[in-house]
Structure formats: structure tokens, C-alpha cells
Task: structure prediction
Amino acid sequence: MTNSEIAELTSLCVMNTYNRFPVAIVKGSGRRVWDADGREYLDFVSGLAVCNLGHCHPKVVKAIQAQAETLIHVSNLYHIQTQSELAKLLTDNSFADKAFFCNSGAEANEAAIKLARKHFSIRNQGRYQIISMEKSFHGRTLAALAATGQKKFQIGFEPLLEKFTYVPFNDVGAVEKAINNATAAVMVEPIQGEGGVNVPSPDYFIKLKELCKKAGILLILDEVQVGMGRTGKLFAHEHYGITPDIMTLAKGLAGGVAIGAMLATGEVAAAFTPGTHASTFGGNPLATAAGIAAVKTVLEDGILDNCAKVGGYLFKQLEGLKKDYTFIKEVRGKGLIIGMELDASIKGADIVKACLAKGLLLNCTESTMRFIPALTVTEAEVDEMIGLLKIALDEVKK
Ligand SMILES: Cc1ncc(COP(=O)(O)O)c(C=O)c1O
Result:
């Protein structure tokens, strides 16, 4: 089928929840993808920070092939070796003692919210309020949507789940003011992704952790977008010298296969007992076999070092554009999640469209261009991307 035939089929049969570009991606390898008409693109979107190892990484492909020939799915009524092994890998490499597996970021956050409530419910403490951040994004299911501090995602779905309060990101004083006797947890992204790549000041999380400890409430970190190596460390909170009580993961965890995970300390995880939470597909053999391959590759194949090195190079190249393109207000980020904020004189969506026409996949969130390539990207590919981006910027600014 061609791009336009696939687009027609989509509009006929698929619910209209996405603004899609008129191309259908049918093949991927490393940092390149191809559309149904055979056109090649350099990919700096990576399935929205999912394909952290690039498309169809051979180690992930091999693990999926082997697992698919052995056992694709089995119920959580039985033990699942790959699930237990992935949990061990994640807990050995983090603050956490236990993991719960699901299938997406929103589900991981649902599980985190439920665990926080249950933690205090079994202690008869009547704490159920969650404090989250303005401009945050935690997913589209109803509890995750209630936690998301952006009105535009919530309109039309009210009444939202009760007891969510929003405060400005990077403002510990605002969290302190919002805490009351009903507060269970603070839920926050280490770097806000969908909200425009917002990086907190270096001491924000140290102070926030101290505050949570003092108030006897839990700290939930949503690492769905910035975890799994995206910032140059396995988990973004490692940059800030703190650990949370609960952490959620998804996106890059299984090299492109749908998966979500919620990790917690042993004390907090103990609130979940048989029957309190579940997922039919959560932690199934196929997804967790892919997860093991992906996590091992991130840890063992120099991926974190490459992310930090090429991330620094990309940051410098984007900073360098500021002198010729005065509509660039700020470049910010860590590792390979970098935002380039534009002023009101130019539309990010127009730049994205112009880049697509030149064979470059880029993304923007409102006024911020977001660069989230695979963590395996090279400096030569960054140079290639900058070359294409400059042509697009020259075209759009006219
Ligand atoms: C920080 C964060 N949390 C949660 C989600 C939701 O994940 P999913 O779309 O897998 O439900 C996203 C998705 O972009 C995200 O960036």
C-alpha cells in the first residue's frame, strides 16, 4: 500500500484521536525509518522517546524472536521467569526493592497512585491527596489525567478523579503550602517532557525529598519519558542525588515493545497484596524478554556514555543556532532530551512540517522543539540533522 492508501484506510476505520502527518512509516533500522512510498527519514523522534536503542536493535529483535518461538503469553496466575528476571535487573540497578509490570506509562502511574493511597489506607491515615505539577504530563487514563497539570487534556472529561492539586514545577515552597493532613504523595517528572523540556534547578529535588520526608508523605517520580538512559544516566533522578519512594517507567523500557513498570521500596510495595492490583498482559513473557535485552544493552553497550557525549554535542550545536536564528529563545535539557524554545514569531509546527519534507522527523510541544533521538545517535547524524533543520528554519522564517 502507498502512504495515501494507508492514510485513507486510517481515516475510514481508526478513531480520529491523532493529528497525523500524511506518511505511513513501514520500516526502521537504527536512526532511520522508511515510509510506504520508499522515502527515507532521519529519525529524531524515536517513537516519542520509545526506541532508545534505535529501531529494531538486533539484541532486542533476537530476544523477541526467541521468546515468540517459546512462549508469548501466560497468565500471572503462574510465575514468569522473564518477568522475575527483568524485575531483578531493575531493582539491582535502582533504589527499588519490588516491581509491578503493566503495559504503558499511564497504567504505571495509575498503579503508583493506587499504591500511594493503599500505603496510607492500611495505616488508617486518611491520606489520599496527590500534589502534582503545572505543565506535567502523566497519561490519558482518568487518574493519570487528573494528575496531569494541563487543562487542555482534561476538558470534556470532567468530573475528574478527586483530590489532585497542582503547583508550579521547580517551586518547593508551593509544594510545602499545598501539603495538608490528607496529602499522600508528590508526583513529579524529573524533567518535564510534554510540558516543554523543563529542567529543575539542581537543588530542587534534594529540597523536595527533604520536605516529603518531614511531612511523612511519598515521593513518586514519573520517569516514563526521561528514564531508561535518556538523560545519560539509567534514571534521571540519579543526577539529583535523591531516590524516590515510587518510580514509574514505560516508553524505552523494552526497546519498542509495549510495557510499563511501577517500582517501589519494599516498605511501600508491601501495601499491594494479592487481589489489590493486576494486569492481564502486565509483565508477560514477550514484553519482559524484550525488556531484559533492552535494559542489558543500555547498561552494557556504552549507551549511557554515548547519550551523555552526543547529547552534549547536540546541545552545543543547537545553542550555536541562536546567533543566526534570533527567534530561538532558549535551549535546555539533559543528555538526549533537549528542548529549543521559540518565540511567538515562528510556529514549531511549521518547522516540523518543513523538516518532514526534507526527510527529517522532529517533534514539537507547543512552542518548544523537542529533540529525542535514539541514544545510539552519532555526532555525524547530529550534523546531518542540523543541516536539514537549518534549511527548514531558513524556509519557515521567510
Ligand atoms: C512523563 C510521562 N508520563 C506518562 C506518559 C504516558 O505514557 P503512555 O502514553 O505510555 O500511557 C507519558 C507519555 O508521553 C509521559 O511523557
